[in-house]
Amino acid sequence: MSDAEAKIDLRDKNVPWYDPKLKKLGPSGRELLENYSKIPPAEVEDHVYKMRDEAWDVFPYPCIGEFRFLDLAISLSPDYPAVLQRLKSGNENFLDLGCCFGQELRKVAHDGAVQENLYGSDLRAEFFEMGYRLFLDRDTLKSKFIEADIFDADSALAELDGKTDIVYAGSFLHLFDYEGQIEVCKRLVKLLREKKDSMILGRQVGNIDAGEYVQATNEGGIMYKHNGESFRKMWDRVGEETGTKWRVDYDFAQFEWLSKEERDKAEPGIGMLRFSVFRE
Ligand SMILES: C[S@@+](CC[C@H](N)C(=O)[O-])C[C@H]1O[C@@H](n2cnc3c(N)ncnc32)[C@H](O)[C@@H]1O
């Protein structure tokens, strides 16, 4: 076991991806906690620290250690207005895949989506409990959470096969190597409704120089970091192997939350790939 793996096992906080201090709580995260969860503004930060540390003990992902679970991303997509319109209609289903706290699901619920049509899914059901406690909505949220391993074709997620219109996959595909990502995408093809414009949107860590990188927090220790073109090629292959066609829109940007100093120290070429993949 490597030193990093041992620290992960022990939930050690002395790792570069555990920020002792919240640098800045993004306005969308704060808005959600104050207006959806009705937490008094002066109590928001203490609540966030407490819940972050509890989630760290479930699994110490960088998105938890760096508080990125409150840096809401779905509404930054250029496709968000159309997605929201579709989810307000009451005719379409939404799945937040690898939802962790389910923050993006809460964002669309808060923005007016029909809650009964929203699903969250994760390998670790402990995160669903954390989500209710973070957002204080156990008795009000009408959405459903499904415990499932995305690689298990017989999991409870099968109830959504062919019935899902929109999938959000935030910081999810990058948990796997290239072949793992292909397998997940094929599973998504099965989950999505066989209809033009059923779609997947999301974001994940990428690199201008696409390829496999060592990442201790990933199962298997490898993260395939895409650039836009490699991501598009992956979907071409998924299409060929499933007899389907997909259009990929993307943008790639440097991590906007890093200071200039942190950016200078970061891995060369690293950035965030944001994508929307539409069935044709
Ligand atoms: C890095 S977090 C991303 C959380 C959230 N989607 C976001 O955008 O911040 C990845 C999540 O995927 C879940 N996960 C990891 N492997 C999985 C698998 N095989 N099947 C389903 N969920 C998985 C983890 O438990 C974790 O909650």
TrEMBL record:
Please list the GO terms describing molecular function: transferase activity
Question: What InterPro entries has UniProt attached to this entry?
Answer: Meroterpenoid_MTases, Methyltransf_25, SAM-dependent_MTases_sf
Keyword check for Transferase: yes
Task: Read off the SUPFAM superfamilies from this record.
Answer: S-adenosyl-L-methionine-dependent methyltransferases
Q: Which domain of life is it from?
A: Eukaryota
Cite the entry's keywords alphabetically: S-adenosyl-L-methionine, Transferase
Q: Which family does it belong to?
A: Belongs to the class I-like SAM-binding methyltransferase superfamily.
Tell me the protein's name.
Methyltransferase domain-containing protein
The uppermost taxa in this organism's lineage are: Eukaryota, Fungi, Dikarya, Ascomycota, Pezizomycotina
